[in-house]
Amino acid sequence: MEWLNQMVSEPYYLSHFLTFFSYFILRTSTSSLLSPRLTHHLLHREIQAVLAFSVLALLKLVRQETWEAFIADMLFFAKVFLVALALVIDYHLALWYLGAFFVIYILTQQPVYQGLGTSSKLTPLQLETLLTEGNISRFWLVEFRASCSPASICTSRCFPELSITYSNKYLSFGIVDLGLFPNAAEKFGIYLGGSMGQLPTYILFENAAEVARIPQLDFEAKSSHPPITKRLLSRYFELDRHLLEYIKGK
User: Fold this and answer.
1) Of 242, 70, 68, 64, which Cα lies nearest the Cα of 163?
2) Rounded distance, CA 208 to CA 134, Å?
3) Beta carbons of 141 and 127 less than 8 angstroms apart
4) 130-169 per-position pLDDT tens digit
């Protein structure tokens, strides 16, 4: 029901659904206009597209950790297959679909995961205050994201789910949206230029001092960095060790 509600209420999902659904309407309405040879060829390509899409969906379902990343990949593959099928019918139709997807890309964006878990949404000023006062938690693990960053959208579910498992009296989780506060990025050593490739950035603070971050400050010097997953964050910031220390200290 949650995804059904999002499909109806979110312009991003609704516009994609209507665009894909239009193919079935066009396909049935123009079937009588196509030659038997072209109809047979198109049906053959449609079967190939469905089989290829199904295989890709199974692979991505196993490999992707979040639904947001899975849906983003599936929509991309569906667009490719739809344009390819439209090209079999008529190149004008393929151009129309390319234009429709471009308009969707300009006017809408995939929504981020709305759950927070036990993390807190913070402004940069609130984060500075919490770090300076230091009377709430010894450690703060903070995710710096932007709702307009595709990478942030695809990983937006990981951080809240981690907070449910690992947050405690000594370790708190916070989320700062640098899309709303871009001027604060430089203060935390985050570069927002280009395609916001440094987002999301995760920084662990201990008593207001930064002790670890991912991606690291020399991110641009590297050709690539590992994809953000819950396992990666848990290992990199030693969240299991922090949890055990908290349990032992109780």
Assistant:
1) 242
2) 7
3) no
4) 888 766 678 899 999 998 888 899 999 999 999 999 999 8
pLDDT at 159: 93
Closest CA to 189 of 176, 198, 181: 198
**How many CB atoms within 10 Å of residue 128?**
15
36 vs 247: CA distance, rounded Å: 72
Q: Is 98 exposed, middle or buried (CB count within 10 Å of its CB: 0-12, 13-18, 19+)? A: middle
Is residue 119 within 8 A of residue 175, CB to CB? The reply is yes
CB 173 within 8 A of CB 163: yes
pLDDT at 221 over 90: no
Per the listing, tokens 């579910």 go with: 157
Give the DSSP per-residue string, 185-234: TGGGT----TTTTT-SEEEEEETTEEEEEES-TTGGGSS--PPP-HHHHH
Measured distance CA(12)–CA(110) in Å, rounded: 6
SS3 assignment, position 127: helix
Q: What is the reported pTM?
A: 0.82
Find out whether 94 and 87 touch, Cβ atoms under 8 Å: yes
Cβ(73)–Cβ(65) below 8 Å? no
Q: Are 144 and 199 in contact (CB under 8 A)?
A: yes
The mean pLDDT of the chain is 88
Smallest Cα–Cα separation from 196: which of 244, 160, 146? Answer: 146
